[in-house]
Design brief:
168 residues; globular; single chain; mainly beta; 11 strands
């Protein structure tokens, strides 16, 4: 009986530690449209947008290529939209005890060197919101704002006046 219980606990731990990836892009998933915002009051406008759909989850990525920065090759804003198929106001955040969010978001500075990327993640606060204004099986449009935090919570970025309209 103890062996069965041990294996059950082990399976639960392995399944519970599954990584919640933002980067399922395995091939060219270039879409058309735009994604733009203000990051700490500076304009940010993606020069490329991508999408990937897997069952009821839509992954969106806006990319800015950084040609004048020797440390970083690009910056990205990523959204993971889960089980949402109608317009509305949704919180952006990471799942936590008792709460499951339909929208997850992050901001990534992609390293131009052999260093780790710098990842900022949105955790739900009353200001982390996305208003989906239109969504169907071929396109999505929304407005967003979110505060994202570094992995150590020692740094944050405020992303405001965000909007996108993407056809895929």
């Amino acid at each position: 009986m103890y062996k069965s219980m041990f294996f059950l606990v082990l399976i639960f731990l392995v399944l519970g530690c599954k990584e919640d990836s933002f980067d399922p892009f395995v091939e060219d998933n270039t879409a058309s449209g735009f994604m733009l915002c203000q990051i700490n009051s500076s304009s940010w406008s993606a020069n490329e947008v991508q999408e990937y759909k897997e069952r009821d989850t839509l992954f969106l990525k806006g990319i800015v290529t950084l040609t004048s920065d020797s440390n970083y090759s690009s910056s990205e804003i990523n959204f993971k939209i889960i089980n949402l198929n109608q317009p509305g106001l949704y919180g952006i955040g990471e799942d936590e005890l008792g709460f499951t969010y339909g929208v997850k978001g992050n901001y990534i500075l992609k390293s131009a060197k052999n260093l780790p990327d710098v990842v900022y993640t949105a955790y739900y606060t009353e200001d982390n919101l996305m208003t989906i204004t239109g969504i169907n099986d071929r396109s999505i449009a929304a407005e967003f704002k979110m505060k994202v935090f570094s992995q150590s919570f020692s740094d944050s970025l405020l992303i405001t006046n965000g909007r996108f309209s993407i056809t895929y």
